[in-house]
Design brief:
By secondary structure, the chain is an alpha+beta fold. It has a domain of 118 residues: Glutathione S-transferase Yfyf (Class Pi), Chain A, domain 2 (Up-down Bundle). The protein contains ten helices and four strands; from the N terminus they run βαβααββααααααα. It has a four-stranded mixed sheet with strand order 2-1-3-4. The model has no long low-confidence stretch (mean pLDDT 98). Bound molecules: glutathione.
Length: 233
């Protein structure tokens, strides 16, 4: 089949990584265009005339198809490439949208006032946002996934992995990077969710990818950022 073109900022894992993990786990051919050609090529591609243009990256292009929004991209891939059982796609999408909510909240911790301002310009507000995120929102999100896993498991949709598992892995990786102290303190309360992270990490389908330089590390340019002052002991 013709490879997909994935467009996402070249320098960070960000939201592109949720799409990459699904493509990699199913060995779906794709070209990571901005990683090959640079983020300027992405900015240029965004301005191309298109019937259904994306608002923001990541987006996936294949022939006439151009689809943006992580959850919409993954639902599309799941339908075409069996990344979740057909009869569970609505629930898979619900789980994915919940993960997208958590990702957006994690970003808003270090940018609570405006995305266009630097973190250093909103540190006081970020400290307040981080306290609520650490104390209320992380446990609430993890508690939700723990509840789903406690109803069956060992994967979110039961006995086989599906794409929301890959995304939950990436969410936990991001939270572990940004809030290592808080996440360590929560691990014992959400054993099934943390075990799911380990299970995805050990998937043979992802072994080559996770060890490769295609896998980009987290940094303070991305969505999940580690600022020690936002994760006090
Ligand atoms: N809800 C969208 C969010 C997309 C998004 O915020 N993309 C970021 C990069 S992670 C971006 O470049 N946004 C530009 C903008 O919002 O102006 C998704 O899940 O894909």
């Amino acid at each position: 089949m013709e490879p997909y073109d994935l467009w996402y900022w070249a320098e960070i894992p960000g939201r592109g990584e949720f799409v990459r993990l699904a493509l990699e786990a199913k060995s779906i051919p794709y070209r990571d265009r901005a990683r090959a050609e640079g983020s300027a090529a992405l900015a240029k591609d965004m301005t191309r005339p298109r019937a259904e243009p994306p608002f923001a990256p990541p987006y996936l292009v294949c022939g006439d198809l151009c689809i943006a929004q992580v959850a919409a991209i993954l639902l599309h891939l799941a339908r075409r490439h069996e990344l979740a059982p057909a009869e569970r796609l609505d629930f898979a999408n619900q789980l994915q949208l919940t993960i997208s909510d958590a990702v957006a909240e994690a970003h808003n911790v270090h940018h609570p006032v405006a995305t266009g301002l630097r973190y250093e310009e909103q540190k006081a507000e970020a400290a307040r946002a981080a306290e609520a995120f650490r104390n209320e929102r992380i446990p609430k999100f993890l508690g939700y996934f723990e509840r789903i896993l406690s109803q069956g498991g060992p994967w979110l949709l039961g006995e086989a992995w599906s794409y929301p598992d890959l995304s939950l892995f990436q969410l936990i990786e991001g939270l572990n990077y940004a809030f290592p102290r808080r996440m360590r303190s929560l691990a014992g309360d959400f054993p099934l969710t943390f075990a799911l992270r380990d299970r995805v990490h050990a998937m043979p389908e992802l072994a080559d990818y996770l060890a490769s330089d295609r896998r980009i590390g987290f940094s303070e340019d991305g969505i999940f950022r580690h600022y020690p002052e936002l994760d006090p002991g």
